[in-house]
User: Fold these one by one.
Assistant:
Number 1:
Amino acid sequence: MSGRIIKISGPTVTARGMRETRMFNRVSVGTMGLLGEVIRLQGEEATIQVYEDTTGLALGEEVADAGEPLLAELGPGLLGSLFDGVQRPLDVIAAAHGDWIARGMTLPALSRERRWTFEPAVKAGAQVAEGDCLGVVQETEKIQHRILAPPGMNGTVHEIRAGTFPVTEPIVRLDGDRRLTMMQRWPVRRPRPVTERLPPVVPFITGQRVFDMLFPIASGGTVIVPGGFGTGKTVVEQTLAKYAKADIIIYIGCGERGNEMAEVLAEFPHLTDPASGLPLMQRTVLVINTSNMPVAARETSIYTGITMAEYYRDMGYMVALMADSTSRWAEAAREISARLEEMPGEEGYPTYLSTKLAGFYERGGRARCLGRDRREGAVTIVSAISPPGGDFSEPVTQSSMQVAGGLWALDSDLAHRRHFPAINWKRSFSLYTASLDPWFQDQVAPDWPRIRADLSSLLQKEEELQEIVQLVGIDALQDQERIVLEVSRLIREEYLRQSAYSDTDASCPLPKQYWMLKALLEFLRHCRDLLKKGRTIEQVLESPFRAELERMKETPADRCVEMARTMIEKMAS
């Protein structure tokens, strides 16, 4: 069905004659065929959010209802691709049409010409249910793409074909002459179903000491990374994309500045995956929506990215989704809400902002996927937030803190002192610590929770002593207290600080993290013992162990563990 435009307000358009349309249906707007989505229905009038520039639209132009919601194309060919917020392939558009996207341009997300080799996993006559693996495609050198029976689909296999096919050619025929291809289409706003949600008992290992030790998050967990300009949000997410223990990376640049996204596009194709030695792009999907692109497209970019993440989760993969940043997404929601003349909430954001954010974060999680083989997969969400002026009391940060399981708070003062990751350990937290401790105790060391508690206690003590120093000076402290300050500084500089540009220190395995900290805490005990034996604080600080501790982070993991063990034995004796 179709209607006619009666009102144009920036990225929103109102059309009359749309009585039979549905909420969130995809529409084609005007003679240019601009892509839009129905976001409000009142009688026969539909309000449409347009994902392209509406300049030049005229009243009376036709709006055509596609009869279906906004869908993502899911299948072989996603990895290594670059999309915009509505899943148009930007690399294909650039090669064929130049650097600018013409209005009304629609191209399929997945190539219709490229052929993939399909190897069946079932035979004719087999009974299949939703989520069962029908066969596999080697999508990249390391990632095997599992072709699954779509949700809600089950029956008897009458025919299954092996060979090389495009994604749109039928490869499986079920009873009732139902034909399946290697491609699925799924509404981006609808979460993909799972058999069972699993508890957060397995950590998302980042390779960053301050995260894994102090503020660990679960595989399938959610964490927000708020910080002001220049605090290192993008660097944190790119470091996690490279070093975190994840099979698949979905990176969403949502409304960020074009120069930052250009840097991402320039760097990512040349990054090497440390785990495999292959290009990182072989397990990465980029969704890019820059600040000069239509504001409404920011809104859908988040949903497009999370839908692709859920798709790979359903195959049994551990997926990490990096959203940079949800602040720009919230700003888009604010603008659309203002165009709709809705009652504004705090700072002009819509009153349903918290609900909208919660709906996004709830799509993360670890789950048992559909299918009789009981696969397990996870979507871990790491969301950057850009609070104006670094003010964490603003609505987006506060609403996100209410639903996210962790907070990695970036600090401008630390960033100015070149302390990266610039994590403020006083403001950061993790709600997963208690549920993850049994895993760390079993897989790394039984006393992992204790040394983390010792580290937290030491940093808290240092904070109290620094307040005294600022009031009356360091000379007012006793030698035992000065030792606490010196060792805390050593821990901050040599343990919590980590260089993303060091081949050795960019990622730190868990055993190295544990033994480094254990050696540093043992050094504190050793210094206290020396003071009790009558040594001066100057003599204590000249200990040869100090130089060895300062070399640990640039020492390869195996050698570092052995070095730490030897030092601990010597200090104990």
Number 2:
Amino acid sequence: MKLDIKKLIILLVVLPIVVACTSSKNERWHQIESMLNENPNSAWLMLHQDSARLGEYSKSDRMKYLLLRTEAMNKLFYAMDTISYMKDVLDYYSSHGSEEEKAQANYMMGSVYRDKGNSPLALQYYNEAVAKLDTTKSDCDYRLLSKIYGQMADIYNLQRYPQMELKMLDKKALCAKNAKDTLGYFIALEHRSSVFHKLGYLDSVYQIAIQAYQNYKKIGREDYAAAALAPLHEIYLKKKDYAKAKRALDEYRAKSNLLDDNGEPVYRGKEYYYNYLGWYYKEVGQMDSALWCYRKILNYPSDIEDLEAGYKGLMSVYSLKGMGDSVVKYAHLYADANDTANFRNSASEVSKVQALYDYTESQNVAVRKAEEAKNVWKALFMSFLLIVLLLIILRKLRNRAQKMQTQYDATKTELDSTQKEMKLQKQKMTKLRGMLSFYQTNANEEKWESESMVMNSKIVQAFQAYANGGKQPTVSEWRDLLTLIESSIPKFWERLSSFNDTLSTDEFRICVLTRLCFSPSQVANLLGISKQSVTNKRKKIVQILFKSDEIKKLDYMIKQLK
């Protein structure tokens, strides 16, 4: 009896402490969640402070911490492609937590696969997240739904599937409106302009951009208003209205907060501003400024289209300046970039995932309805109900088969259209290579042939494939590449070899890859190191080889090295 009393006393002492700790932790999670939308940097700081005590947390608190941490990374545009813990988080919330937490876990898992470049899996988890949220409930988290549909729209944009992109943007707008998220609603309406741009409806793009500019002005968001001017850059330049184009470009740079005080892009993808600025300078005859802008794009390429724009712009300016060697060089680089762009992932893979999900979801809906009907009618009409349900199921299966046939026919039609487009692109490439042949004849043919032999060699092409696929070459392949450089570009090899004592193996290889026009991100893939490591090594290289700190000119100086 004394032992029981003792246990009771301990329980009475410990229980309030446990309850207080749990309550305190839950309050902190709620505080961080509230910060994430308005001040993600502060939320991230609070999470960082908690990281040292993560081992002391219960499993539920640890999973909540990791979920919030991933959400903060997503808010701050941190790359999430290396995150490995989200599977554990998702497994936990599959049987724990609220429906919103389950949806959030699937949303974050989708975002991890988004950053990995796996669009089908990203879509799969985004769809799972949508399925967790019940729009029939009054407390449905429409704000979260709006964000999910926005991410799905971005994926369809990357996959060049404008119809589905527009559908997701409409859903995003509706959910933002239901959430009373005025800014989110305006953003969804504005992003529709990218769809109409891909479809070639520039009048619609213009109207949407102007309306978006006015909407943002009404709610006092000068930064968003300035950013909404981006589509007008192209429109004004095509209309040769250079005064309006310059005003729009200047307001974008000054007020959008997408470029820092030095004009550097704050986020990936915003460097495309310099394509339009370079276009403007070219049209008004400021060729040196135009060259600077196009080279600026190549310093921050976030997409193959950036490389296309940069190379094409440089090719056009050098053509106007009558510099044949440079025209040939950038025409070749533009051709390679254009080839790569033409073979990007087809939207068909994404549409198949969506179709598979729709099929599975329709099955789930059918089962749920059947169960509801069974509960209603089983008391009086059990036998009759079984017959009716059988007929309904058979009818639904027949309709579903017809629907799948229709989807198959539509997909086949789209595939045929894509193949035709690829054929047109190949014809375009034939013309472009004809231009290259012209410049070879009228420029430095010997130099062209030497450069072309190296760039088109099997080993360089193999390295290109490894770089784009995130793989590292073998020791033997590295040896073959270096042998090719030594025999084909002897002066460059001799000069570079003179620094063998001061350059590390990786630094030597970076010099060779830079000479072959590999980007820093591609170099990182080939060497199996981080982009930051590549940047640090490039800083050291420019100091050793050229006694300079101008890392931005390293590519140019390496290519001039003799």
